[in-house]
Design brief:
The protein is α+β, with helices and mostly antiparallel strands. It folds into 3 domains: 154 residues, Beta-Lactamase (2-Layer Sandwich); 85 residues, Helix Hairpins; 153 residues, Histidine kinase-like ATPase, C-terminal domain (Heat Shock Protein 90), CATH 3.30.565. The chain has 8 helices and 14 strands. The strands form 4 sheets. Strands 4-3-7-6-5 form a 5-stranded antiparallel beta sheet. Strands 9-11-12-14-13 form a 5-stranded mixed beta sheet. A two-stranded antiparallel sheet has the order 1-2. A hairpin with a 2-residue loop joins strand 3 and strand 4. The longest helix is centred in the N-terminal third of the chain and has 50 residues. It starts with 5 loop residues before the first helix and ends in a 6-residue tail after the last strand.
């Protein structure tokens, strides 16, 4: 389905690119927010470290004094989520009242160094360690490590809230952009649908040319297609004129032969045979003129009624094969139509019926019916069967080639079925062979309706 739809292919490709872009954007924004939140946490803890340094003192006896009233009040409330520590030689020297019962491991750092990390213990904490050298009043230098920790849950909650909000907005934006993209694609591909509709109208016979207007990207295509249609129309006109000229050129020789056949000095059997052959040639010439005229009347495919055309062909062949006494029946809906050039219809049905008349003993049957089923496109079935000898299985493929006849003793050029096969292929149809009800040949032509041949 995707392979056969340009709009679906474009929509899928653009949708994948859009979703990938929004996904990568969301990941980048979430990472940037998380990094910014971590940096803000580090800066906040560093400010608390500086506050500890400002309120912290050690006397000459090694006693710690802390002006706790100058610190954040959370340092004084147990379980507040903000904790302070001072370590000396790896041992805790002081801890804030809020850190009651909390054991934070020390860290060995060089003087003036700091380290920011996530400590995962009984509760997750973001911790900033800061190393200093404290000099007492007596000049004694003491290495100290100050640490401030804050509960990691608040930061995780902020990141989770941001993630949820971010992806909600990006999801809504994706839906909005995909909808806009769908309508933009429909608007952008509308000229292609227009030219496709115009081609279908030409195929159905409602139009003769692509009229537009079309965008400049499609204008050249429309011009070339119109030129092709004009060329085909001119070709059909030349074909009609050639057949008409040929048929007309035979009229005078036939008139002379008819006049010769009426001379009294000719023997009766000769005269009768000559008149019969002249009459047969006259019917064939009239038939060719009828086909040429039919082909020239239509420039594009229009619905053609099958029954009247088949009856006209039968009437002509009844005269051509009058001596054989063929009984031909036509069965089907008299209003059934097919989308086929009328000249091609005469060529196709005429060759099939001519073969049936030529090979049958007495019976020829023509059946027409519509085809509608889920497993194949709607169309028309035209079956011509006879009570002749049929075609051996080994020769069924060969008789569709030009110049090949199943029986070389029978008059003909061996191109009738080849022409039928070419015409059916040209119109995306099928030609099937099966044994008729009488054991003879049955050729079935399946012609799809234009626009449903896929």
């Amino acid at each position: 389905m995707i392979r056969g739809s340009l709009s679906l292919r474009l929509a899928l490709a653009a949708g994948i690119v859009l979703l990938a872009f929004l996904g990568l954007t969301g990941i980048a924004l979430e990472k940037a927010f998380r990094d910014a939140a971590h940096k803000a946490m580090e800066d906040r803890l560093q400010a608390h470290i500086y506050a500890l340094l400002a309120t912290f003192d050690i006397d000459s006896n090694g006693q710690v004094s802390m002006a706790e009233h100058l610190l954040d009040s959370r340092f004084s409330r147990p379980g507040s989520g903000l904790y302070g520590f001072v370590f000396m030689y790896g041992q805790p020297l002081w801890r804030s009242p809020s850190a009651l019962g909390l054991q934070l491991p020390p860290m060995d750092l060089g003087s003036g160094k700091q380290h920011f990390t996530l400590w995962q213990g009984p509760q997750d904490l973001w911790v900033l360690y800061y190393s200093v050298i404290w000099e007492t009043e007596t000049g004694h230098r003491i290495p100290l490590v100050l640490a401030v920790a804050e509960d990691a849950e608040s930061l995780a909650r902020q990141v989770a809230n941001f993630r949820r909000t971010l992806w909600s907005w990006l999801g809504g934006l994706a839906i909005l952009l995909l909808s806009a993209q769908f309508w933009i694609l429909r608007w952008g591909l509308k000229p292609l649908r227009t030219i496709a509709d115009d081609l279908e109208a030409i195929e159905a016979g409602h139009k003769q040319r692509l009229q537009g207007p079309y965008p400049k990207e499609l204008a050249g295509l429309a011009i070339n297609l119109n030129a092709l249609l004009d060329s085909e129309r001119a070709h059909l006109e030349r074909y009609r004129n050639t057949l008409a000229d040929l048929a007309h050129s035979l009229k005078t020789p036939l008139a002379i032969l008819r006049g010769l056949g009426q001379q009294e000095d000719l023997p009766g059997p000769v005269r009768s045979n000559l008149e019969e052959q002249v009459e047969r040639m006259q019917h064939l010439v009239d038939y060719q003129l009828q086909k040429a005229a039919a082909r020239g009347r239509r420039d594009t495919l229009q619905p053609v009624a099958l029954m009247p055309a088949l009856e006209r062909i039968r009437n002509t062949l009844d005269k051509v094969y009058a001596g054989k006494g063929v009984h031909c029946t036509i069965e089907g809906n008299p209003e059934l139509q097919c989308y086929l050039d009328e000249g091609d219809l005469y060529e196709l049905a005429g060759n099939l019926l001519d073969n049936a008349y030529k090979w049958c003993r007495r019976q020829v049957h023509v059946g027409i019916k519509p085809l509608e089923s889920p497993d194949r496109p709607a169309g028309i079935s035209l079956a011509v069967e006879d009570d002749g000898p049929g075609i051996p299985e080994a020769q069924r493929g060969e008789v569709l080639k030009r110049g090949i006849r199943a029986d070389r003793s029978t008059q003909g050029h061996g191109i009738g079925l080849a022409i039928v096969h070419e015409l059916i292929s040209l119109h995306s149809g099928r030609l099937n062979y099966r044994v008729s009800r009488w054991g003879g040949a049955c050729w079935e032509v399946i012609l799809p309706i234009p626009g449903e041949t896929g």
